[in-house]
């Protein structure tokens, strides 16, 4: 078993990184790992860290490998933003850590999982560290694409690109690593369009599977204008529910921790002003994170819907291409029968514009309404 086993469908990337870990001549002080969401950027970065620290260049079993992978190794710093931007004070701290020699291993490794979320000032604060490499320090920056990373950072790092892994490789990983039943793994990998994290959640969480099915089923019910408004509201509320459920507990724990750090009494009704201002700053950050998370959830629903109309197009044309939604035969037949090919393409365009508008900060409900109006089934208009 090697440390690269969980980096699925990325032969080229694994070849480049494992060669660099084994041969100092191929090593670089800063790497930029890009790849679509769910392709395994951070898994690849952690595996690389393990390969650099492991005496056998990534056996996968030793203490170095295990702690590098889970981020607890003394010489590995992992920055994961969970949706918040990376601020200049955090970047300065990283630049400071980068100056230190490794404490136990051969390398000091700094992994930034969302280098696309560095603010401009934060990126500036990192530049000097990237320009003047410290001999045993390695930066591993991850981002969806090159364009998402500030150009000055881009030009100072070596680029490695991950691709969308094949669905069967993702299914195989779920079976092997997460002990998922093979049929379920195959369904989840296909439905998640090879997004490893989503596939894992679909396979293990029935609620997620139900939410996905409900989202797709909306498509078959949009006849009138009223249906369209209702479908948009449903899509928005599914996202709000998921976002609230996932953040409530973490938000409360963060607040508790902050109060403890400040030496305040968490049970007190009112807090002194300097504590209140810190608490309200945290609450503001949490709200930003919840908004971003809600938008991500909406976007995932839209990606699911997009795959449905694309499948309907495939069914209609009778092309021998594998479907994403094999379990939705009836719905696909309805869509293929009701819409012409041009109309199906127009539906896909409408979904695409909704995604763009939400990305550009248009209120989600507004963008969704405009979209669902375009998704009305023709013969019932
Ligand atoms: Zn090892």
Characterize the structure shown.
- With 381 residues, the protein is of the alpha/beta class.
- Helix 9 (196-204) crosses helix 10 (206-218).
- It is 59% helix and 7% strand.
- The protein contains 15 helices and 5 strands.
- The radius of gyration is 23 Å and the shape is globular.
- Strands 2-3-4-1-5 form a 5-stranded parallel beta sheet, with helices on one face.
- It has helices at 11-22, 41-53, 63-70, 88-98, 120-131, 151-154, 167-178, 182-191, 196-204, 206-218, 225-261, 273-317, 329-338, 341-359, 364-374, and strands at 30-34, 76-79, 108-112, 137-143, 158-161.
- The termini are far apart.
- The chain binds zinc ion (ZN).
- Zinc ion (ZN) binds next to helix 3.
List keywords for this structure.
single chain; 381 residues; alpha/beta; 15 helices; 5 strands; globular; binds zinc ion
């Amino acid at each position: 078993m090697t440390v690269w086993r969980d980096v699925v469908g990325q032969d080229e990337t694994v070849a480049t990184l494992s060669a660099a870990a084994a041969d100092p001549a191929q090593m670089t002080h800063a790497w930029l790992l890009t790849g679509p969401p769910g392709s395994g950027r951070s898994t690849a970065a952690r595996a690389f860290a393990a390969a650099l620290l492991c005496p056998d260049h990534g056996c996968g079993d030793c203490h170095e490998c295990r702690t590098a992978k889970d981020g607890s190794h003394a010489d590995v710093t992992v920055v994961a933003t969970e949706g918040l931007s990376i601020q200049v004070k955090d970047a300065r701290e990283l630049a400071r850590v980068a100056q230190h020699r490794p404490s136990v291993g051969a390398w000091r490794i700094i992994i930034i999982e969302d280098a696309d979320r560095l603010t401009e000032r934060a990126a500036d604060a990192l530049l000097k560290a990237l320009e003047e490499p410290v001999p045993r320090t390695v930066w591993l920056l991850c981002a969806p694409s090159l364009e998402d990373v500030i150009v000055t950072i881009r030009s100072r790092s070596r680029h490695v690109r991950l691709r969308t892994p094949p669905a069967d490789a993702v299914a195989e990983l779920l079976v092997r690593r997460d002990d998922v039943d093979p049929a379920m793994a195959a369904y989840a990998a296909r439905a998640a369009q090879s997004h490893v994290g989503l596939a894992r959640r679909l396979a293990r969480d029935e609620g997620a599977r139900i939410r996905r099915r409900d989202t797709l089923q909306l498509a078959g019910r949009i006849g009138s204008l009223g249906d369209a408004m209702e479908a948009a509201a449903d899509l928005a509320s599914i996202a709000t529910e998921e976002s609230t459920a996932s953040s409530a507990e973490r938000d409360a724990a963060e607040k508790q921790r902050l109060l403890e750090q400040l030496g305040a009494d968490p049970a007190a009704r009112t807090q002194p002003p300097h504590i209140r201002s810190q608490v309200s700053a945290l609450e503001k950050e949490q709200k930003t994170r919840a908004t971003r998370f809600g938008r991500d959830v909406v976007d995932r629903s839209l990606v699911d819907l997009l795959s449905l109309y694309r499948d309907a197009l495939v069914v209609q044309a009778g092309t021998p291409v594998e479907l994403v939604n094999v379990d939705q035969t009836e719905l696909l037949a309805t869509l293929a029968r009701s819409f012409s090919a041009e109309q199906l393409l127009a539906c896909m365009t409408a979904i695409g514009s909704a995604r763009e508008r939400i990305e550009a900060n248009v209120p989600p409900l507004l963008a969704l309404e405009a979209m669902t109006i375009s998704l009305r089934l023709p013969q019932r208009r």
